[in-house]
Amino acid sequence: MFTIEVDDLRLSFGDTKALDGMSFRLGGGKIYGLLGRNGSGKTSLLSLLAAFRRPTAGTIRIDGENPWENAPLVRQICLIRESGDVYDQEKVSCVVRTAGDLRPSFDRDYADRLVERFQIPTRKRVQALSRGQKSALGCTLGLASRAPLTIFDESYLGMDAPSRYAFYDELLADYSDQPRTVIVSTHLIEEVSSLFEEVIIIDRGRLVAHDEADMLRSRGVAVTGPQEVVDTFTAGLTVLGTQRLGGTKSATVFGELNETQLSAARLAGLDLGPVSLQDLFVHLTTGVNR
Q1: Same domain, 166 and 200
Q2: Sheet harboring 57-62: ordered strands across?
Q3: Chain segment 99-127, per-residue pLDDT in tens
């Protein structure tokens, strides 16, 4: 269960700043959600954590050590990207066997069970697999790695909905049985947000928010009731979005309500509920300069 410490992390490609002074600390033994729009720097950040790249400036400490050119540490970090990072010419059975040889914590029996659950043909070469099967193979290798730091970077996007939900179930069950530090980068926020204990939101290479998932959700509230009453109550507040059904309206408001506002909502007969992480994410990463 590795801790992660990032201080003033920067990564540049020529004049392009992929990461621009990012700092945070992640405690060990949690499932973290990494959220960001396309081009926000998610993949760049994860590639640095896994020592696939060297930062331009700043420091990274994984379990107290610098991962760059640190072979013993890197063997305990598993990053699964959307591509799966496997050799297309190899058979699935060979890929699984090689993964077991490379990672000291790899569980071959668990990998075999996952291959069967996701119906991945072991005798086929990777290049002959469908996109969904390739994604399932990558997720299998990540789960079965049992690495103290396991990272999934949009690795399940090729899977259909039933397979994705099977992956989420496996991830949560195996994490409960074999605790470790897990980072999941995703665009499917509503689908997977229930897994996250903490959430990191980045935008244009900078940290926008890092907090417990429930604390982030508490930054907003869903206000539901008769349309005119909701409009009156939310006037002057930051409204992230609205939905209507007949004469009923629901408005998602950003910001905590004070006691006076809460009392007014109750007196008006309005229902107050939690806001979704996706609505908050959209609000926090939407800027006029994008």
Answers
A1: yes
A2: 16-26, 4-13, 57-62
A3: 999 888 999 999 999 999 999 999 999 99
